[in-house]
Amino acid sequence: MKPRNLEPKELIEKLKEEHRELPALIDDTILTYQVGNLSGAFPVLVQIRDLLSQHTIDEEAVILKIILDKLNKEESEKYVDIMRDHVAIMKNVDDAVESTYTGWTETVALMENLRKISAEHHRREEEILFPKVLELL
Ligand SMILES: [Fe+2]
Ligand SMILES: [Fe+2]
């Protein structure tokens, strides 16, 4: 997967849009599962994983690169730290996809956890990381 071909400003708008879409997609997966429609819930879960994979690649290849190019190691640390959340977020979404292979018993709890950790991560990106990147452009 390659970063999307967007200017940084345009990319940030797209990333913010996706931050707003994610909770609804998570709720959609949970509700579709809870009404017993597993074959409907699974594609939404895969859609979430694909969306987050592309989203994370864009943030690390484009947004983080601006930080690393323009700030020294000490100045960049708090922004790099926000990007470290991606490891736990992607692990959580992979675990959720895998949990569907073993009877969906863990899936709702994993999706609820994903909603929680991604909300805090998105808040940090929108309040701390994105404004800094826009300032550095
Ligand atoms: Fe992120
Ligand atoms: Fe993000």
Task: Kindly describe this structure.
With 137 residues, this protein is mainly alpha-helical. It has one domain: Four Helix Bundle (Hemerythrin (Met), subunit A) (Up-down Bundle). The protein is 85% helix and 0% strand. It contains 5 helices and no strands. The longest helix is centred in the middle third of the chain and has 33 residues, at 38-70. It is elongated, with a radius of gyration of 16 Å. The mean pLDDT is 97. One fe (ii) ion binds next to helix 1, helix 2 and helix 5.
Query: Kindly state the mean pLDDT as a whole number?
Result: 97
CATH class: Mainly Alpha
Structural class: mainly alpha
Classify the fold: give the CATH topology. Answer: Four Helix Bundle (Hemerythrin (Met), subunit A)
Major sheet: none
Which blocks of ≥5 consecutive residues have pLDDT under 50? none
